[in-house]
Write a structure and sequence with these properties.
Helix content is 21%, strand content 29%. It folds into 3 domains: 51 residues, Roll (Structural Genomics Hypothetical 15.5 Kd Protein In mrcA-pckA Intergenic Region, Chain A); 83 residues, Alpha-Beta Plaits, CATH 3.30.70.580; 79 residues, 2-Layer Sandwich (Alpha-Beta Plaits). By secondary structure, it is of the alpha+beta class. Strands 5, 6, 7, 8, 11, 12, 13, 14 and 15 form a 9-stranded mixed sheet that branches. Helix 1 packs across helix 2. The two termini are 25 Å apart.
Length: 233
């Protein structure tokens, strides 16, 4: 088995993330720093930062309604609260699938299934993610059209998006925005390009998977039907 698949199956992270760890020299096989593409055989000892990594016999899958004020990472070097603090005890080693910003709320999946993480986060799969967005003031039809057709972030145009106004008054506008990418702070930055300030952002769907009444800060296991759906989205 290739080393990046082994690490992904062991729950370390997506294959792309594991490739980065390998390039950084943080993965060893039988005590030696390994290189990309090597094969791991039965009986080999694999370590990540000195800690032995073993294949999981069983994967775990959780869904969280992330509140603002938490970072989407396993550890934070600034001492901030992380989404791991919200998990029930003894769930084992899990990893967030993708990221939600410190001030962004909503649907977050955590798992030790590296293949699922890769499926949901790899750009080529274009997994749709829907957000509830609240902006100051109103937004013009021309700016809505720009967001739908794609805007330039760091010189690269975003994919087309679905943007629908769901509520508006003279102070605020609420929209549902569906994107198929996961660039850093993408939704907030998209609205910045049309001079709209996002004051609230919540991910409410991944594909057709929703929070289904899950309270802010709450966590539950995904059902078998939900797991099957995500693996085939």
């Amino acid at each position: 088995m290739r080393i990046n698949k082994y690490l992904a199956d062991a729950g370390v992270g997506s294959r792309r993330f594991c490739d980065k760890l390998i390039e950084e020299g943080r993965i060893k096989v039988n005590g030696k720093v390994c290189t990309l593409g090597i094969e791991v055989e039965s009986g080999d000892t694999v370590t990540f930062d000195g800690q032995q990594v073993s294949l999981k016999n069983k994967f775990s899958y959780y869904i969280m309604n992330k509140p603002k004020g938490y970072v989407t990472t396993v550890k934070d070097d600034k001492g901030r609260k992380t989404v791991m603090d919200l998990l029930p005890p003894n769930v084992g080693r899990l990893y967030p699938v993708g990221r939600l910003d410190y001030d962004t709320e909503g649907l977050l999946i955590l798992t030790n299934d590296g293949d699922l993480t890769n499926r949901l986060t790899h750009p080529r799969n274009e997994t749709p993610k829907t957000y509830l967005v609240k902006i100051e003031g109103k937004i013009t039809e021309s700016n809505l059209a720009k967001l739908r057709n794609g805007v330039y972030l760091d010189g690269v145009k975003t994919n087309k998006a679905t943007v629908k106004v769901v509520e508006e008054d003279y102070k605020f506008t609420k929209l549902h925005v569906t994107i198929t990418e996961g660039r850093n702070r993408q939704v907030r930055r998209m609205f910045e390009t049309v001079e709209s300030q996002v004051v609230f952002l919540k991910r409410i769907k991944i594909g057709d998977l929703t929070l289904r009444g899950l309270d802010r800060g709450a966590v539950r296991k995904l059902t078998q039907e939900e797991i099957h759906y995500l693996k085939n989205i």
